[in-house]
Amino acid sequence: MSSIMSSAKGQRLTRSEEKLLRQEEERKRLEEEEIRLAAERVERERLEKLRLEEEERARIAAAVSMLSLRWQRYMRCDGTPDPTIPQEINTFINLSKENPNTDIKTLLEGGRVILQLLDELEMVLRDTPPDELLEGISDQYQQTIWDLQELLSNINDKATDILLKKAIDLVDIETGNMQEVVTDENVTLCLWANFNKNPRFKGYAFVNYHLEFELPKPLAMSDIAVRILHTDYDHISCHSHAFNAHQRAFKTKLVAVEIRQDIHEDMEVQGEGEEYQTIEDQKIPEEQKIHEGQKTPEEQQALESKQSPDEEIKPIRLARSRSAISSGSKEEMELRSRSSSRERVVEDFDAKLPSIELVSEKVSLETIDMSIVDFNQYTPLGGVYYFDILKLPPQPKFVKGWRIVQLKDTGLMSAPYPPESNKEDSPTPDEKEGESRNAPPTGITLKLPSKALFFEQPKPARWDQTGKQWRTDGIHSITFEPEEQILSFKMDTFNIFTLIQRYYVNMPFQSWILKPVAENEAILTVHAAFTKVEIRMKDLCQLCPVPVEDNLSHLRGKWMTASTLIVSMINAGLNIFPGTDSENYVKINEKNKMVTQNIYMEMALVSSAIAFRSSNWNMYSEPEEILLQACESLTGEMIPEDDWSLYMLRPERCHQLKMKESSEELSNEIAENTDFYSNLYHMMRGLASDAAKERILNTDHLFLGSVQEILEATKLLTHTVQVN
């Protein structure tokens, strides 16, 4: 009996000890978790400090670079004005307008100078941080751009007028008509004047320039001229409200994401309780501002009438001020000042673009005109074609040895087509009363421009001067010869037209690799849907040359800033830079935007020593998870397949996976003897060799800025999808 009682007592003691052990283990676990969270917060603060230091260095470097450019501009001494100085550029524009020169070659050379000034001014607008531009300066620069574009258009018209006034002297003996071609580096001007007036004339082909037009029969007996002016640049699309709205969204998309990210990080640093709740409540006005484009036009108009731009941003600034006052640490003050400056950046972005009235994207399907070109889906390529029918100016006459010319200072005069008389004619017996007869269409045949890449059959689009937009209606009978790249179509009237291609024709991407070549030098290779793109990045960026010359030979091998390269590639048809609403037009991997933005920055920080590669398993992971491959690379040579490791990146921690890219199933099993890190940057530094750590510490801020800007623009982590 006594043995039974002692046994029960022993069991009771055992259960009590187990309970104490469980409590002790839980206490230790909570302590470890608290230590881990504190360590991660410290590391986040360290990374934020590093980011602030890099941004400050980048800002100083940008200021030094701008001063250097201004000094180089001052020392150029080539007679061209500085487009950023109003007195110089206004004098240049006025003198050019009053220039009596009638030499075609000299006029076209003047056009080249204007294009250089435009490129210079646009680069200043693009590369200067908005908060560094004085109030009204961006509007001044934009007005100067419009004035220079108008001046360039007037020069092209003047060259056309000069040729037409002496057209009788340029008549071809064989055809009896005048056909003349004037070419320049950026302009091809083809002119045909009707002197023979052959009723059976159908059209003419400028064979050496791959341009051909069909003349409607009613014009065969008229005193008219046909002009086909092809400019490699596009100064028409910028007059479209939709184009400016698209540019605004493309430029501000990353800034808005970073602002929301900073607010989220600030709230984590701030802590919990009442203070946390205050910041959370103050976050609402900013989110409303970021998403205000989703409101109806009536709500948007009412909001704009009540609030000025300064008033719209005021709640955010007040919220940030309260948060800064309640915080006692210097690091948190830096966080808030940084976020506040970025809020001002968003506000100042409006000043860099023309003042336009933005229309809400929430438009009912009944009101959508499908013939209007949507810049979110299509992009104009290859420049602009001015296809005009002009009235012939009075031609010189020879009377008794005298050359008599009737002077008319009317400039170019367009001939209406369809003719007005055609509308007033009474209907024929076969036509119903009130039904107008359609005039025959005009036709055009051309070879695709040689300074743009077309990956599919382009669509022609005509310019609607009234609505200030590109349209696809009024164009029919489209044929395309892929092998010879010849496009033919007919239009109801003579008009300005361009060629458009799908914006996302090269997306989603199939794979990508970011590989260091040397210290502060890396190459990004993107395997897009139709082509492979290689971008070399140092303090500047370069589209790498290819063995076989292609349509981008004018762009390849030239060093330029990341923003300039992005714009140049988009305009040339090599677009690997998704827009703000790309998920509506192309299949993507849905990922947390703040997570991806952080990873792009961290990849750039270590890209001088660490290679990264896409993983097909990324598309099977959760939205909060990123899977990618990485390995150390210091030699720039080919990386063996076995050297690549697969990493799991989450907002709270990062670690290496046991599985490889070639594994048959996705597994979250952690690799042996691996440590946990708070972010990608510290993980790569923790795993790197001493030589790699030294190279990472020596990363140049200009190189860092170039890599980060390219990565953020390509959105590789979300727009790479495995193709079965």
How do the helices and strands line up, and which of them pair or pack?
Blueprint: H1 2-76, H2 86-97, H3 104-127, H4 137-165, E1 178-183, E2 187-193, E3 203-206, E4 211-214, E5 224-231, H5 241-270, H6 274-290, H7 297-306, H8 309-326, H9 330-349, E6 378-391, E7 397-399, E8 402-404, H10 420-424, E9 442-447, E10 459-464, E11 469-471, E12 475-481, E13 486-491, E14 496-502, E15 511-518, E16 521-527, E17 532-537, E18 541-543, E19 559-560, H11 562-571, H12 593-606, E20 610-614, E21 626-632, E22 645-649, E23 654-656, H13 680-687, H14 690-697, H15 701-714, H16 716-719
Antiparallel strand pairs: 1-2, 2-5, 3-4, 4-9, 5-6, 6-14, 7-8, 9-13, 10-11, 10-14, 12-13, 15-16, 15-20, 16-17, 17-18, 18-19, 20-21, 21-22, 22-23
Helix pairs in contact: 1-9, 1-15, 2-4, 3-4, 5-6, 5-9, 6-8, 8-9, 12-13, 12-15
Brief summary of the model shown:
The chain is α+β, with helices and mostly antiparallel strands and 724 residues long.
Report on this model:
The chain is α+β, with helices and mostly antiparallel strands. Helix 1 packs across helix 15, helix 12 packs parallel to helix 13 and helix 12 runs antiparallel to helix 15. The strands form four sheets. The protein has a nine-stranded antiparallel β-sheet. Strands 1-2-5-6-14-10-11 form a seven-stranded antiparallel β-sheet, covered by helices on one side. It has a five-stranded antiparallel β-sheet with strand order 3-4-9-13-12, with no helix packed on it. The radius of gyration is 32 Å and the shape is elongated. It has 16 helices and 23 strands. Strand 22 and strand 23 form a beta hairpin.
